[in-house]
Design a protein that fits this description.
Oligomer: single chain
CATH topology of the largest domain: Alpha/beta knot
Helix content: 25-40%
CATH architecture of the largest domain: 3-Layer(aba) Sandwich
Strand content: 15-25%
Structural class: alpha/beta
Number of helices: 7
CATH class of the largest domain: Alpha Beta
Order of helices and strands: EHHEEEHEHEHEHEEH
Distance between the termini: 35 Å
Bound molecules: S-adenosylmethionine
CATH superfamily of the largest domain: SPOUT methyltransferase, trefoil knot domain
Mean pLDDT: 97
Low-confidence stretches: none
Shape: elongated
Strand order of the largest sheet: 2-1-6-5-7
Radius of gyration: 22 Å
Largest sheet: 5 strands, parallel
């Protein structure tokens, strides 16, 4: 998969991309990530990318020209042009189902906003998908892009050390994950549930399923029919 990120702050990404799962996926050649600074496309002599809103009011708006040129050029850099996604609070809510869908794509282009967001005409001209990571407002789309990238990259075949681990994660089968325990067997008077030490895999599977349902009812009853 190829991921192109368009941002005014490319310096936000190297730490995230250089560690753990994103780093492993890049090193294995499972994902190729290209960062593009939207400012590089500004035709303004001061490389301006934002301007005051028509109608007045606080804040600045991302202007059409640099962003349009950036998106159009980046999409032409490789084949296919990619699934074009703008990060924005009014977008469709990102979730595990959509992460799995995006993991099937050959190429995704993610566009990060800043300030008050994008000049609306950009949406009319490009007709991109709009995605949100939740009902709250971030200062910029970069954190949203990282959340989406992380959720998608870990689903790409070959990325995770144990191939089955993503399949057992919360939301994949519609409920939460079961609780996890590791060494030591006892810690500060609390013992690991005996069933997990039994070696009986049928019983362990049944216990985990029961625990996953119990936790879903307790923490996220909205997920249960
Ligand atoms: C300060 S926000 C703009 C908020 C906008 N004025 C509003 O109230 O809807 C700047 C940028 O952060 C990003 N952003 C903020 N919240 C987001 C969210 N929940 N999901 C995805 N992107 C978000 C978007 O790219 C947005 O253009």
């Amino acid at each position: 998969m190829r991921l192109d990120i368009l941002t005014l702050f490319p310096g936000v990404f190297p730490g995230f991309l250089g560690e753990s799962i994103p780093r492993i996926a890049r090193e294995k050649g499972i994902v190729e990530i290209r960062l593009h600074d939207i400012r590089d496309w500004s035709a303004d002599r001061h490389a301006k990318v934002d301007d005051r809103p028509f109608g007045g009011g606080p804040g600045m708006v991302m202007v059409c020209q640099p962003l349009m040129d950036a998106v159009e050029t980046v999409q032409k850099m490789a084949e296919p042009p990619g699934r074009l996604i703008f990060l924005t609070p009014e977008g469709r809510r990102f979730d595990q189902t959509l992460a799995a869908e995006l993991a099937q794509e050959d190429r995704i282009v993610l566009v990060c906003g800043r300030y008050e967001g994008f000049d609306e005409r950009i949406f009319e001209l490009l007709r991109p998908e709009r995605l949100s990571i939740g009902d709250f407002v971030l200062s910029g789309g970069e954190a949203a892009a990282m959340a989406i990238m992380d959720a998608v990259i870990r689903l790409l075949p070959g990325t995770l050390g144990s191939p089955g681990s993503a399949a057992a994660d919360s939301f994949v089968s519609g409920i939460l994950d079961h609780p996890h325990y590791t060494h030591p067997v006892e810690f500060r008077g609390l013992a690991v549930p005996a069933v997990l030490l039994s070696g009986n895999h049928a019983r362990i599977d049944a216990w985990r399923r029961e625990q996953a349902l119990e936790r879903t009812g307790r923490f996220r009853p909205d997920l249960l029919p």
